[in-house]
Every structure is written in structure tokens, then in C-alpha cells.
Amino acid sequence: MAAAGALPAEWIKNWEKSGKSEFLQLCRTLSENKSHENVTFRDIQQALYELANHVVKGNLKHDQASNVLSDVIEFRDDMSSILADVFCILDIETSCLEEKSKRDHFTQLVLACLYLVSDTVLKERLDPETLESLGLIKQSQQFNQKSVKIKTKLFYKQQKFNLLREENEGYAKLIAELGQDLSGNITSDLILENIKSLIGCFNLDPNRVLDIILEVYECRPEYDEFFVPLIESYMYMCEPQTLCHILGFKFKFYQEPNGETPSSLYRVAAVLLQHNLIDLEDLYVHLLPVDNAILEEHKREIVEAKQIVRKLTMVVLSSEKTEEKEKEKDKEEEKTEKPPDNQKLGLLEALLKVGDWQHAQSIMDQMPPFYATSHKPIAIALCQLVHVTIEPLYRRVGVPKGAKGSPISNLQNKRAPKQAESFEDLRKEVFNMLCYLGPHLSHDPILFAKVVRLGKAFMKEVGTSKKLNSEDRMVKFQSDGNKQEDKEKMEILFSCLLNITDQVLLPSLTLMDCNACMSEELWGMFKTFPYQYRYRLYGQWKNETYNSHPLLVKVKAQTIDRAKYIMKRLTKENVKPSGRQIGKLSHSNPTILFDYILSQIQKYDNLITPVVDSLKYLTSLNYDVLAYCIIEALANPEKERMKHDDTTISSWLQSLASFCGAVFRKYPIELAGLLQYVANQLKAGKSFDLLILKEVVQKMAGIEITEEMTMEQLEAMTGGEQLKAEGGYFGQIRNTKKSSQRLKDALLDHDLALPLCLLMAQQRNGVIFQEGGEKHLKLVGKLYDQCHDTLVQFGGFLASNLSTEDYIKRVPSIDVLCNEFHTPHDAAFFLSRPMYAHHISSKYDELKKAEKGNKQQHKVHKYITSCEVVMAPVHDAVISLHLPKVWDDISPQFYATFWSLTMYDLAVPHNSYDREVNKLKVQMKAIDDNQEMPPNKKKKEKERCTALQDKLLEEEKKQLEHVQRVLQRLKLEKDNWLLAKSTKNETITKFLQLCIFPRCIFSAIDAVYCAHFVELVHQQKTPNFSTLLCYDRVFSDIIYTVASCTENEASRYGRFLCCMLETVTRWHSDRNIYEKECGNYPGFLTILRATGFDGGNKADQLDYENFRHVVHKWHYKLTKASVHCLETGEYTHIRNILIVLTKILPWYPKVLNLGQALERRVHKICQEEKEKRPDLYALAMGYSGQLKSRKPYMVPENEFHHKDPPARNAVAATVQNGPGGAGLPASLTINAAKLEESTAEETDKLKEKTQGAVKVINKAANATPKVTTSNGNSASNSKIIKEKDDKEKSGKEKDKEKKEKTPAAIPEAKALGKDGKDKPKEERANKDDKSRETKEKTPKSDKEKEKAKKEEKTPKDEKSKTVVTNAESKFAAEKEREKEPSRERDVAKDMKSKENIKGGEKLSVAGSLKSPVPRSETSESEREQKRRKVDTHSSPSHSSTVKDNLCELKDSSAKHYINHTTPALSKSKEREVDKKDLDKSRERSREREKKDEKDRKDRKRDHSNSDREVPQDSTKRRKEENGTTGSSKHSKSESPSDSPRSNEKEKEKNKSKSSGKEKGDSVKTEKMEKSSSGSKKESRHDKEKTEKKEKRDSAGGKEEKKHHKSSDKHR
Q1: How many CB atoms lie within 10 A of CB 435?
Q2: Residue 1293 CB coordination number (10 Å)
């Protein structure tokens, strides 16, 4: 054998030594060489063959071979097979050999290797005889027979299954028939005939044939047109149920655990269903899973979603977090295992693909909502169907300009839904399909966009033929020939569109991951809806949609989780990145995100700025949603709008309001909803939400409302728009042009401008009644202020932003506003004022254009003409606002003029203009000096500044011309202003009541305006206007007005008083100014004649010194009122008076002792309120500090106004502790007592009335002109009053005579002059201040006069109280002064000029209380002279003359009244009576003075102590009396019940009595002179005395009262 050579002989010889290992090595290398697989295989075969051959030959033992083979067998997997092949060859070879030994060796080798090769392999390959010899089979013969049998059975025997005698040739032919190429002209009928032949010929089973047809159809889905008719025709031969059962069996076959139904089967079933070849109900039962299982699965999903939400909202500690996450991952992996095949869904998908919508719909109806479409393939199939259905309509109306779009081919299927050609077609099918899709439209953003664009196109089409009427919440269409049907169709379509938006578009947007384009696309449609619809959709989206589907529940939780994450990290520094994250999150889930952000803002207001800045990445839709969320947060019924203490508005509301303002200003968000919400809240009588409007107007229009404006700002606010913007506001609010335009448009488009104004005006007065109730007064005041401020701010916005036409079109006339809309008068005029200004200016422009005359006179004439044209209807309209009686005193023209003008019309704020221009110059210089600024920016900035400067100068010029025109107009009008058909006093009352008081608390600028107007009326020398009375009424008793103000009103009232005081202080400061501005003016007449007064002699004018007394009286009255308010303990009184005092600080207190009295009271408040009411404590501390800083500018009383020092020997019977005065003649004390008593009672009543009236005017503006008439007084009262009046009259006239005789006034004037020279510099320095201050003060006087009246009415207890405190204060002050070293005294002297001004106000408190002659300044000789004069009765004290003057003012007013009411009394008679009275009273006074002198001598010993106390005591009492007499006169004048005769008699009596009293007064004043005549020390003593006296006075106050009462009875 050739192969034997391959194994070298020496290997066999040395087998055990080396041969075995060499052989193994060879086999190993062969088996490892895999490069040439076939070659290797042969080589191994050869090696093994040679080894076996050596054994057969006997060269090698069989056991040695088997050992080595057992090792070799491991080298390759197929080694045993190779070995079996080798044995097979050797078997054949050895069986042919005759050598027995070789055959034996072979069998031994195979036996030894049996364990290496399996039996079965050997049985296959070896001969049966060999197998038998090896013992692997029993008998070779049997083995052969068996194998033959098996082969026969396998290959030759036919089965007996064809019982129907079918022949497989038939099936082969059938398949060939169905599978042939069908492209030619082969029809289903032809094939059907062939099939019938085959069934008949080959005995085929018809059911099996049908099954085969279906199988072939499955494999050839493109031949619908062939197979469907074939099956249809074939079914005529079968039972109807057969097809359904066969399909059912096919589905059943795939219902094994891991079976997967092929899509081809679903498709066949779908097509058969579509062609109605089977019924869905019949097939449905064959499909799995059952409906119950589907329901269970759906419920399970919902539960799982809720669990996920719970996990997200739970607070998990970090260590637990990681473990939980791992667990969740494992669970998710388990879930991803393949769910069992859902055949119902498979069929549904196939139905949708073939376009069988009816059957698809009925399958979906069997399942839970959105269960089917939550499976992506189904959702996508349905989307595809919708795409196809809307294609023609979308191509026609939906494709945006410039977009090509990719057309979609329609289904080839005639039974698919009909394509939509019009919007009406959409309703039939498409909307239905979309509803089944629900949130799963998110799978196809392109379809989403198409649907939205169709919606947009529909709204556009609707817009051309209809108008959406938001009121009826119905879509109304104008019938342009459209039929009613069309309207109804459109309405139905619109509601369908809203439903689709609610159920499909918004939920789908939620599931789209951060798709800003879709959001913008949706906004394109949304912005065509009215906001009511949009907000309703957002509400549904936010509060309901998220709970409708497990997927949405999860998304909501994830959004909140993410929002928390972002908000925790949001700061000012990372606004941009956080803003982007917020933007991303907001694109798909804005409602949830904003809800969370707003909840955070309500808790932490420091988030407002960063949040507002971070919202810049939102889409338009998101901004709109934000507006809705804000309104929803504001309207949250669970939130309290007040803090727990019920005195302040909740911080959450304040934060939201502030956020509103910022966000609406910065971003283009629609405002209509918010404004309507505020209007609705006002309609419901809730004013809390005005806070929002206030913030929005402030931020968007830059119109601030603050009570804390500086005088500079206030001045700037009286200029033009440019000056206001530059100098009038705290923050320079720039770039409000766009935002204010947006606000204006929102108001006009939704007709909210006027309704909001009216609602606010009505609500302002309603606050107290509707919202007051149980609430704290502080909160009610705050709400009132908020309502009022917002009205002023909003009105200001409308006036400056609305065009003339818009404004005039919307604001009705004044009578309609007040009578129909019940707008308070002040608010009504406030709204109408800009309208009048617009009207006049436009008329004026018209006239200017008509005639081109350029002369100033022409212009003025034209201006006045235009005013007349515009204002005439207003004059007529205002008549209906008040009772006819009102117009007896003031003309409608005056009333309308007062209410229609503003500060802009009265004065040009030159200082403000200069200030702003200078600021701009400084800015320009700074720009020039700035090296770092690039040149082009420098140029821009400089241009801006220059342009502004030019604008300001132009504006100033324009205003100057305007003011001159207005003043000309007033000059012409003034004679018809005050008719004074009753008394001047009554005229002033009406003026204060109907004009000044309501307007001075309307706004800060109005406060200044009122003061200026009073001054203007005075300067114009208006007939029948008593400036003196007006100021007196304003300053005299401010308690009631102060007490009835809210916090902001108090601040404005304070400003008014401040301006009034400024004017008064200017006049008081310098004789020349006084002479120039008041000396010869009708306003300072002391005798009030009937109308028709045409000038008059100098004696009727109030001279400068007496004016200073009067001013001192006013200061004293202010102090008295302030102390009273501070002592009440009432929160409102204290707060308001502190606010007022702070405002009038520049001009009051000026007199040292008054300042000290105030300081002590305020200090006491500080101590009392520190723990109890911290806000009062803060106010008091603030005032106290400012008051201390003003102290150096205060002057002693004698420098404020001159006092007559009393003669030494004339020591009057001092009233030490007792009320009546021991040494005074009984008649005098009784008179005084009666006088005080009765007047106090009367004035009490009177005060209450006037107060009531004032309150009514201020708050309700329903003022009736009867205010001051004291109807309720009894006859006796009125008699007493008359008597008093008469007394005072006589006293005054005497005084006047005395004055004329005596040159006593002259030395005083001289002394004053000296004073003036001593301190000229300071006076000059102060002059500017004063002049500025005077302006501020003017308007206050009227109010205070009224107040004075009221104060006099206050019960005596109050009076005594205030007097007491005053006295105490004075006493302490003077003690302090005594202690001061002389140096300080000199300083004080230096400041006298200033103090003169201040002092004058207090002294003349109620007429003139203290004798006003400078104490230590007049020389001894002068004093002697005076004393002599006093003794001869020729020189009455100044105080009495002042008193007389004032009393006469009042008296004459009384006379006027009497003249009107009782014409029986003629003037001549009056004069005679007066003369008689004078004579009598003179005689009595002489007698009394003699007695007094005696007394004085007796009491010289006590002089040092008592002396000091008396003068002030008596003066104080006199002051009170005088104050009361003033009011009593008023009251008298108003109750003319007695006959003229009795009047006369009582007048005489009164005169005599009062003259007696005045004598007593003069005695007292002499005493004062005497005491002051000593050295300066004595003047200090004086002060001490006066203080002590006041103390005693206060102590004796109560007794005095009793005494007065008794004396009254005595009478």
C-alpha cells in the first residue's frame, strides 16, 4: 500500500520510545493547519489509515494503536467520523483477503476502538457480516430484511387520507391557476370557471379551495381588483358563514403563546370587511384578547401612572434615590418583553390603512377612550388617513404663501372616506377622526400644523362674514345675504373647532417634546378667538385635560418636577440659562409650569425680577397662557386678600400685582382679560384688585402715584408732558411708548376706559360701606386711598394718551356723569378736565387758522372766545349738580372755572424748567469729558440731550403764552364770579365747601392748585371775596377735617395747608410785600359791606400789624388743633395730624412756645406708642427729629407780632386760679363768661354741622349749600348770639375810634422797623424761602377757617384741655428760655425777623388774645405816655382793635344776613344805634379802668408772680372768646329768628358789655407792658409768668366753665 510509506518504519520500530510521540506530533500539526481544509482532511485520513494498516499487518499491537487513537481523537471534532471511514475501507479490503490473520487483526482493532466511534455510525458504514462479528447486531439477515421494509414504507407506500377521492394534481393545477401572471386580460370570472372545473375534475374540497384562494391572496396583496370579485363570486356557492369561519381558524392558529399574526392576514380580513364580505361582529369573536382583558390593562396603566406621580412628588432622600432608580430600571426592562399579540389592534390598524373608517370606528368604540390610539402604529395609521382626507381642502386654503408642500396621493380605494372639499366636509368625518386621536396627534406634528392652519383659514373666512360678539358668548354673523342656515352651520363649525382644540390640539401639544414652532402655529389660530374662548380653553387644559389620560398624568408630574428643579436654581446671575430651560419646558406645558412659578412668586417676592427676565424665551401662546394663569391666581377663592391682622393687603396679592406690572410691560401680552377681571371685581364691589391696575398703569405708562413727592417733583408735574417725564417721577421711566400704546389699545378695543373710571369713582365711596364692615379702619382707609390713587393715575393715563377724539367720544358731559352715573363731583371734573382743555385748544387753533392776525390781543381774544364756546354748555350743566340756593353766592361760571383749570393753567414752573435744562447741560459736559465712550455713541447721546433741551424750552415758552391767556380770561370773568346774594361769609363757606375742600384732597397737585387759586382770586381783586375770612376759616379749626381724612388725603391736605401758610408767611414777613400784595385789596377789608362795594377808605383795610396778630392767632389755632388730635389716642387722628404737621413743617411752627408745646406732645406719643402701634411711633419719631432741626429758626412770640406792654400801675385784677377773675368787675366777668359759654354751645352745634358738611363734601360730594346754617338753635340761643355780636360790634367800633385818636400804633410800627433793621440779612435770606413757601400755603386757609368754626363748636372740655396743654407748653418753654445764657438770647434776637413771621400767627389767636406791643423794645417814656393814654381811655390796646376788626368782619357779615332776611332794618337806623352803643360803652369802660387802676396799686406787691401769669391767661381767655365770637356771629347771622327791634336792643346791650370787657382787656395789656418794660430779664420773667398763667388757666378751665354757665343763668 502506497500509504504505508508515509509512516517511517523506524517510528514503528521505536514506537514506545519515539514513534508514538512523533505520530501524535504529526496528527497535531495536520489538524491545526486550517488553511487548506480539504488537503488537511485527506492527510489525516491517510495517517490514520497507515496506522490501522500497520496493525492489520501485525507490525503494531491493536492496544498500542487504540491508545494513540484515543489521544488523536481529541484533535478534531470530526475525528471519530474520519476513523469510521478508515474502518469502512479496511473492512472492504480485509474481506477480500484470504489471510485470516489480517482479518482478525482488523476485528480486534475495531473492537478496541469501539469506545471511540459510536455504534450508529458504525452500523451505517460497516457490512452487516462485520457488524455481526463485532457483536453490534444479532443476525445480519434480520438486519437486512428490516432495512428493506423501512425503505419500502418510506418511499413506495401511498397514504390512505384522500377519502373524498381528491387528487393532488388538482391542487397543483389550482395553485398554478391562481399564481399565474394576472396582468393580461385574465378576469376573475374566467378563473372562477377554471376553478369550478378543477373542483369537479379532481374532486377538490370547496372549503379547502377557498382556503387556498385566501392564502394566495395573502401572498399577492396587490391584486385586490382580482381577488375580491373572485371571492365574492365564489361565496355565492358557499354558506355565508364559511368565509368568516375560515378566517377565524386562521387567526386561531396564531393564538399560540409566541405566535405572531402576519400583517398580510390582517390586511385580507380588512379588505373583506371593507367590501362587506364578512361581518365584523362575526369575526370579532375569533380575535384575542377579550375586551375585559383590554379594560383591565387600561386600568392598570392608570394606576401605574398615578404611582409614578406619587413617586415624583414624594420627598426622597438621596441615599434611597439611587436604589429606587435601579429598581425602576429593572422593572422597565421586564416590561419591554414582548406583550402578547393584540389581534384586535392589528385588524384595526389594517382597517385604517385600507381606509375603512366605519369598521375601525366601531372597533375603537369597544375599547376604553384613546386606548387604541395610544399604540403608535394605530395613531400613525389614523393620522395618515386624516392626511389623505383633508388633502384637497388643505391645498386650497391651508398652504401658507410661498410654501410648496408635498402633496399626498389619495387612497386607490373607492370605499375610503370622501375627501374634504369644504369646511362643512370636515365636520362629517375629519373632526370625528381627530377626536379619536386625542392627545396622540402628537405623533404627527405635520398633521397638527395642517389642522391648525385649516382652523386659521376657517376663522379668516368666518371673520369676513361675521363678528364675534364676546358678550353673548355666541358667534354672531352679519347677514350679508347669508341665510340663517349658513349662520347656524358656521356656529356649529366654530364650536366643533373649539372642541377639537380642547380635546386634541392642546393635549397633543402637551405630549410634543418642546416644539416651539407648533406653539406659534397654534397661536396663529388662537389669536383669532376672543380672549373669553381662549381663557376657557386654557382653563380646561390646565384643570381637566391632564387628568384624562395616564400619559398626560405622567407628563404633568414630570413638568412640575422639572419646574421645581429650575426654580430652585434661578437667580439674577443665571437668568439666561434658566430662561432657556423655562422656555423649553413652557412650549409644551405652559399652564402647569406657570402655575408653579406663580405659586413661588406669591411666596418669595424677590423672585419677581429674575422670573420676569427669564420669560423672554416664551412663545406668543405661552404669554397668553401666562396672562390667564395670572388671572386665575388672582381670582383664587381659597386665598385671603388680607393679612391676619386685617389691616394690610396680603403680600401674595402685592407680589402678584407687582409681577403683573413688570411682565405686561416687558412682553407683548394681551391685557383685555386682566382689565376686564378688574372691572368685574369692581362691579362686584371689591377693590382689592385695583392694586393690579395701579401696578400695570405705573409700569406700562410710567405714571407714578406717590404721596411722597418732593416739592421739586410736584413743581415739575405742573409743567408740560416733557417736564413731567423728566422731573416729575422718582424713577426715570423710559421706553414706555410701546407699552402705553398697548395698554391704550386694549382699553379702547374692549371699551373699558370709561367703565373702569366710573367703577373706580363709584367704588371709592362704596369702599366704606361695601368693604368697610368689620374691617379695621386702617385697611378701609388704605382701600379708599388705593381706589382713589388708581383713579387719579388711570385718569392721568387716559388724559395723556387718548387722542382728543377718543377722549371726547367716550367721556359724557359733566351732568350725565354726576346725575346718571353717580360719579362724585371731584372725580367727574377730574375726568372731564382734559376734555375741556382739548376742546378749547382745538377751537382756539380753528379760530387762529381762520384769521391770521398775529397780535397778542387778537390771540387772547380768540382764546377767550373759544373758552366761552366750550365752557358755556358746562356752565349750564353744572347748575343741576347743586341746589339752586348754592348759586346765590357763587356763579356756575366760577364753579366751572375752578374745577376745569389746573396748575398748568395758573403758573409756569420756571425753576423746574431751568433745573432740568441745567441737568441736561451737565450731562452733555459729562459726555464730552468721558474719554472711554466711543465717538458715535457720544454724538448720539449729545443729540438726545440737545433735542430734549430744545423740547423743554419750547414747552416752557408754550406754557408761558398759555398762562398769560388764561390770566387774561380770568380777569374778564372775575366780576361775575361771586354774587354774594347772602353774606360774604356764606360765599366763603360755599367756596370752601364745594370747591376747595373736595379738590385739595384729590391729589397733591390739586392741593397746590387750591392754594394758588385762592391767592389768584385775591390777586385778581375779585369782588365779594374776603381773603381774610377765607384764610381764617381754613386755619381756624382743622381737627374735623384732619380726622375725616384717609392717610393719603391727610398728606394732600397737609400740602394744601403748607402752600396756604407759605403765602401767609410771605405777607407776614415784610411790610412792603404786605402793602404791595394785600394793602389795598378788597380781600383784606375788615368791614364787610353789602354787595356793590367799590373800594373804600384805608381805615377799612386790615393794617400790617393787625395782620401779624391775625397770623399769630392762626398759628395758635393750628397748635391747639394739633395738640387736641395728638391727645385723643385715636389712631386716625394721631396718624393724620402727624402727617399734616410733617407737611407744614417749613412754615409752622414758627413761634417758639408753640413749637415746644408740640414737641412735648409728640415726645409723649413716641413714648406711648413705641410698643403699641409701631407705625405711629415711626411717624412721631420722624416728625420729632425734623421739628428739632427746625428749632433754630423759631422766634419768641414778641418777635412774631408786637404786643402792647401794659402800664406798671395798672395792675389788673389778676385771674389767678379762679375762673371769673377776682378783681374784675362782675359785669365783665359775667359778660365774658356768658359770651364764652353761649358761643361755645352754639359753635359746638355749628361745628358739628359744618363738619358734617365738610365730610360729606369731601367724601360723597353731595354737598348741600346749607352747611353752616344752624337751624336747630333755639330762639334764646340766637338771642344770646346776637347780643354777643352786638357787644363785639360796639367793642370794635370803640376800638377803632380809640385807634384813630391814639398814635399808639405808630411806635409799634417803628419798633418793628427797628427790629427789621437789626436783622435785615436774615430777613432777606428768608425772603426767598418765604416766597416759595407762601405759594404752597395759600390754599389751606379756607379749610382752616371752617375748621376754626368747628373747633369753636367743640365741647368746652376739649377747649379747656387744649388750653391747658398749651399753657403748660408755654410755661415750660419760657422756663427753658429763662435758663438760657444771654448769648443765646442774642442769637434769638438775631432770628427775630424770622420769628416775627412765625410769632404773629399765634398771638392773634381768636381775634387778638394778647396785647401785641413789643415788650422790652419801647422805651420807658413811651410806655409812660401809653399808660397815660390808656388812663384817659384814648388808646385802647391793639389786641382789642384787632379783635374789633375781625369781629367787625364777622359782624358785618351778620348784618348782611339780617338785611337779606329782615329787610325792616335799614342801614341808617343801624348806624344811629351803633353811635348810641358807642357812647354808653365808652362811659362804662372809663369807670372800669379807674377801678382797675386802684386794684393795680393794691396789688403791686403780688406783681412779680401774678403779673406774669395774668396777661397770657386773660389773653388766652380773650382769644377763646374772640374765636367763639367769630363763630357765634356766623351762627347768629344764620338764625335770624328775632324781630329787628329786639336785635337792635340786644346789640346795644352787647356793645356796652363788650366794651367793658375790652377795657378790662386793655388794663391787662397795660399790665403786660409794665411787666415787660423792665430789663431783658423781665421779658424772660414775662414769659415765665405767661406759662404759669397758662398752667393755672388750664387748671381753672373747668371751674371757668361752671362759672360761665352760672353767669349765663344769672343773665
Answers
A1: 15
A2: 21
